[in-house]
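Aggregate trends can hide what the representation actually does to any particular protein. This step matters because it turns folding into a mapping between discrete strings. For completeness, the protein is quoted in full, as a sequence line and a line of structure tokens:
=====
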Amino acid sequence: MVSICSLIPKLNFGPDFRYYRRGMFNSAESTNREGLNYASLTKSTDFSWTLDNLIYYNRTIGKHDFGFTFLQTATKYEYEANNMSGEGIPLESSLWNAFKSLSSLKSWESSLTEKQLLSYMARMNYTYKGRYMLTASVRRDGASQLADGHKWATFPSVALGWRIDQEEFLKEISWISQLKLRLGYGVTGNSAITPYQTKGGISSLYYPFGPNPTQGYIAYENEAGITNTLANQNLGWEKTAQWNIGVDFNFFNGRINGIVDVYTSKTTDLLMAQSIPTLTGYARTYANVGKTKNFGYDLTFNFVPVRTKDFEWNIGVNAAYSRNEIVSLANGKEDDPANGWFIGESTNSIYTYESAGLWKEEDRADMEKFNANGHDFQIGMARPVDQNGDYKIDANNDRTIVGHYDPRWTLGLNTNFTYKGWDLGIQLYGRMGFKYYDSSVWVGGRYNVRDYDYYNENNKNAAHPKPIYDEGGKDAYYNETYLKNGSYLKIRNISLGYTFPNRLLTHTGLSALRMYAQIKNPGYIFSGCKTLDLDTYSNTYNSGFTFGLNLSF
């Protein structure tokens, strides 16, 4: 029996440092300076690092292969910012470097954000005869931004693999190059919240104490621009336990290959911002609010329909389906309309009034019944659906779930053609089964001049309510008409290249030369949105051309 072993230590360190400095000076003669020179100075540093200590131990005993990995990792993030501004700078040549000469500053602020993560992990890989595989691991993580007593959590996982193609009953089937079955279970954690959410905010206040006022601190008062957040000293890890089963296959020497994964998961103690009654003195808090479950599958297929001496055509397709559902909330089995959370529905459900289009002339009789109950609807305004049929629109009885923001499907397609030295590649990407708000249709949101289909006396079959922006938002339900189907399929990239044959590079000193041209984001195959790029949720659609050379010496 042969025994082989190896012990390999490894150390990884990755720092990341960023420095930002911005000075601004406005002369006394600038617009709205009121005869005073103005200057401001902002500085910030962003520093993070990760340190990994690793030990690998491998041993082979006959047909048994063992691999052990031990990891200790530490991560720290620190962001520090300072800014100040002042008026009355004596000399323009001083710019933002003369704040000391001022009797007082116009504004000043400093901030510091820190967080750390400390982790330990042990993993074992075991293989028998190259066909039966077991992987087991345990990880323990501590996150500084969670509450005392809840910073640490343990996350186990186990996975099994079976190379079916190595079994005797399949070895004689020549067209099966690989066939592997996988089964896995694991628990992962999420601590991705802003630091100090367990502490809450404070503001200073002066109290009369003796002959002089004394400074003290209290929870944030209602101040403009500040959202009051209630401290949560029980905030802990969000945990997700997931089962998955998968198949890896490769047929006909790579002409057909792919991966199929099906998974189901349950997440407990979700970390989410939660609205709370304002009578508490706060508007919201971060909390571990409940449980969700998720089901999905990932499919990846690669085909080579044509392969000859000079020509090859490859197709790659991937598709992912995912649906999450709220199982329970912190308050038990009750729905939470204030946060848009409902048992049995998606965490990102859209809870609002359902749109019935616009009020039209033929709807006048019904419209008058609503107006008799205190509404002020007009022809051309948005018409919400009266869910309970009482000719009143109110939040308690007429709001409903009209969709969700999360895509059900994510799709990708890559196809490549090669002929001798030429290559052509096309990449498509899409998401299906979700809705979005087209805010650009809002009268105050027209950043680019577009021709919108608004209602007016000459356009009574319009898609959008009549523009009454200067009436103080009188149409309270116009938002619902801007909710649209977000499904799309876009062309992300088209590339064309040529690789020069080696015989042409003999006397050039090059070992390889390829020239190429790319078109980025040339357009959509289809989209329900004409005003936003739903891939990036931007109102600008960035297309571009790239020309380049790849050289190897």
About this structure: The radius of gyration is 31 Å. Helices lie at 168-171, 364-371, 395-398. Residues 350-401+445-477 form one domain. Residues 374 and 392 are 8 Å apart (CA to CA).
